[in-house]
UniProtKB/TrEMBL annotation:
Transmembrane segments: 12-32, 53-76, 96-121, 183-208, 214-237
Gene3D superfamilies linked to this entry: ABC transporter type 1, transmembrane domain (1.20.1560.10), P-loop containing nucleotide triphosphate hydrolases (3.40.50.300)
Record GO cellular component, one term: plasma membrane
Keyword presence, Nucleotide-binding: yes
Protein name per the record: Putative ATP-binding cassette transporter
ABC transmembrane type-1 domain sequence ranges: 58-357
InterPro entries: AAA+_ATPase (IPR003593), ABC1_TM_dom (IPR011527), ABC1_TM_sf (IPR036640), ABC_transporter-like_ATP-bd (IPR003439), ABC_transporter-like_CS (IPR017871), ABC_transporter_sub-D (IPR050835), P-loop_NTPase (IPR027417)
Presence of the UniProt keyword Transport in the record: yes
Recorded superkingdom: Bacteria
Limits of the ABC transporter domain: 390-587
């Protein structure tokens, strides 16, 4: 092998290697598709494959492969140029030395340009993939009310927010790292094995001379080290999976304290919260120590192998150098080739810890996507018909286990009717309201009729306030933020003291009191003008005079609106012409 031959053949080598590498990756993908790993990877990645952008995606992948191959080729040429550099030093040829020094300087400049462009292309690929993946995950999580239905699953996926944000990001980066490392390792193994094969001679061990023995010795050494490393580190897969789960649980508990700070303060619940948080944190620490104990063995073994491997190639080539069969340049190229080959063969050994984290994220994302698939495939029986009013005939509900909660519910509501649902706590008032509204996640039976294409508004006991300005929060989800009557109804609902803050961003869910949040709910009624409104104890935090004013105004302003209310106060009867008691069942 000669440096000029290697330099001249670089372009042909690049095209040929790219072709066989692409073919090999395609065949490998087909084979992996049938394995558990491949099935999980495909389930996560397949929604991101868009036919309209398929050519661009394939182009980016090919460009990434080109940059990986160029990095290997630069290392190969670098080893030959350094061989000439050190050989010219040994032979004291100044002209040859400066020539090879210039070649190495030019190669360094090319490597800098390669590094910059490689980083740019890689980031473009990762960002585009992450954008598509995040879009798909959010769309599937929000569609069909999966974000709501998933709360009722037996094995609820933990920390969904972490899976959508952190796990997805790390999965994309980890996949590119894994492919980059594997492809670079594979090509490096082939290229630098050829170089070492040319540099190696007879290796004498215990009086036995082995042709090209140094190459065989290196392979046996590194493969043995890799096998032992994998065996030592195998338990890290489960430990790292658990680490992500415990960390997410602890963050969620901290967020709950922040979101419920006022209630905790009134209860003087600091001691109990501290115990709870400490329990969550102790689980993280115990898992951390388990990882540390396992990593002590793994890191110690890897460090020993790496340090020993630094001197091994010189020891193997020293007899040939002292016998005059190898030059100083050959010795340096042997060290370079050996180190690159060792790094390539040791890829899985050195990458094993990151791979365990990658596999843990793969499993977490797979569990999440699989659960969404199951929810999409579940056919919830909701016999809702289209009509002029709300009518229930022999209507009933079942829980998640299929057991009957309510049955034989019969009622009829026309435009302008107002129904008050009452009954003891736990009787199923809110559940019945959800079923009529069409958001009950389990099976219903009997006959249920609702107006066709009705404008429906559901207001829970604690109305939701999204992030953003107060104007955006009040007008959630689809009211015009610049509605001409917004300030008017803020005054009528006794929230005029917040008019000046309409365009201020803040955590309004936490700032507004429960009573103020319920007044926001009535503003939404006035601005939305729904055909049907569901009020789930929406006045429980209001004083009776305010409750009277707000109910009277919606009955006056929206006389044809159908109202379904849940409440315990007797003062609500005057605003409803019908009452349904889950204990007495009278209409």
């Amino acid at each position: 092998m000669h440096w000029q031959t290697e330099l001249n053949d670089s372009f042909t080598w690049l095209l040929t290697t790219l072709f066989w590498l692409s073919l090999g990756l395609f065949c490998t993908a087909l084979l992996l598709r049938k394995t558990p790993f491949g099935e999980k990877f495909w389930l996560i990645s397949q929604p991101c494959v868009n036919n309209s952008h398929l050519i661009k995606t394939l182009g980016l992948i090919l460009l990434l492969l080109v940059f990986i191959l160029l990095e290997v080729r630069i290392s190969v040429l670098n080893s030959f140029f350094y061989n000439g550099l050190y050989s010219s030093l040994q032979d004291k040829k100044a002209d040859a030395f400066w020539f090879f020094a210039l070649l190495n300087a030019m190669l360094v400049g090319f490597k800098i340009i390669h590094s910059i462009l490689n980083y740019l292309v890689r980031q473009v690929f990762e960002i585009r993939w992450l954008e598509k993946m995040n879009e798909q995950m959010l769309e599937r999580w929000l569609q069909n009310k999966n974000y709501y239905r998933i709360k009722y699953e037996k094995d609820l996926p933990d920390n969904i927010d972490q899976r959508i944000e952190q796990d997805a990001k790390e999965f994309v980066t980890g996949t590119v790292d894994l492919l980059d490392g594997m492809i670079g390792a594979l090509v490096s193994i082939i290229e630098f094995t050829i170089i070492l094969w040319g540099l190696s001679g007879l290796l004498s061990l215990f009086g036995i001379e082995i042709p090209k023995g140094a190459v065989f010795f290196i392979y046996i050494f590194i493969i043995t080290a890799t096998t032992l490393s994998v065996w030592i580190g195998y338990p890290l897969i489960k430990l790292n999976y658990t680490k992500e789960k415990y960390a997410g649980n602890y963050r969620y508990s901290l967020i709950r304290v922040r979101d419920n700070a006022e209630s905790i303060a009134f209860y003087d619940g600091e001691k109990q919260e501290h115990i709870h948080l400490k329990t969550k944190f102790n689980a993280i620490i115990e898992n951390r120590w388990a990882i540390v104990r396992r990593m002590l063995g793994l890191d110690g073994f890897n460090t020993g192998v790496t340090q020993f491997a630094m001197i091994l190639p010189l020891m193997l080539q020293a007899p040939r150098f002292f016998a005059g069969l190898a030059t100083l340049g050959d010795m340096h190229q042997t060290v370079q080739a050996f180190n690159r080959l060792m790094r390539a063969l040791s890829f899985f050994r050195l990458f094993y810890e990151q791979f365990t984290l990658y596999q843990a994220r793969l499993n977490r994302l797979y569990d999440f996507m699989l659960r969404l698939d199951q929810l999409d495939n579940q056919q919830i029986i909701q016999p809702i018909e289209c009509g002029l009013g709300i009518r229930l005939k022999d209507f009933g509900l079942k829980d998640q286990h299929g057991e009957v909660l309510l049955q034989q519910v019969n009622l009829a509501l026309n435009a302008g009717d107002a129904l008050l649902i009452q009954g003891p706590s736990g009787a199923g008032k809110t559940t019945l309201l959800k079923a009529i509204a069409g958001i009950y996640p389990f099976e219903t039976f009997g006959y249920c009729e609702r107006p066709c294409n009705a404008n429906v508004l559901f207001l829970p006991q604690r109305p939701y306030m999204p992030q953003g300005t107060l104007r955006q929060a009040i007008c959630y989800p689809n009211i015009d933020p610049h509605h001409t009557d917004l300030e008017l109804y803020m005054e009528k609902c006794r929230l005029s003291n917040y008019i000046h803050a309409l365009d201020q961003e803040n955590d309004w869910q936490a700032i507004l009191s429960p009573g103020e949040l319920q007044r926001v709910a009535f503003i939404r009624i006035f601005l939305t003008k729904p055909n049907i409104v569901f009020l789930d104890e929406t006045t429980s935090a209001l004083d009776e005079p305010t409750e009277y004013i707000l109910y009277r105004k919606i009955r006056e302003k929206l006389p044809n609106m159908i109202v379904l209310s849940i409440g315990h106060r007797g003062t609500l009867h005057q605003f409803h012409n019908k009452v349904f008691d889950l204990g007495i069942c009278r209409i």
